[in-house]
């Protein structure tokens, strides 16, 4: 697949990029600083409660901000965001890969 030839103002840090040839779009993993969001902790989960407390302390030390990660789908022409999903607090995407799934019908 061809590499993008121009810069696009995304206002984020891109951690991964993949081109999907069939859909003719780019999928990227990005992060940007946002106000800290509270972590969801299940009742009785002591490890989760300690992790949430540590995250709250880290956010307080950085002025109440944290890195929020998201997955975006961009159209190649204008670099316009076609679809986006924000990951939960504490979730980090480490890689992105483009795959094509074919729907097959069984002979039954």
UniProtKB/TrEMBL annotation:
Q: Which InterPro entries match?
A: WD40/YVTN_repeat-like_dom_sf
The name this protein goes by in its record: Uncharacterized protein
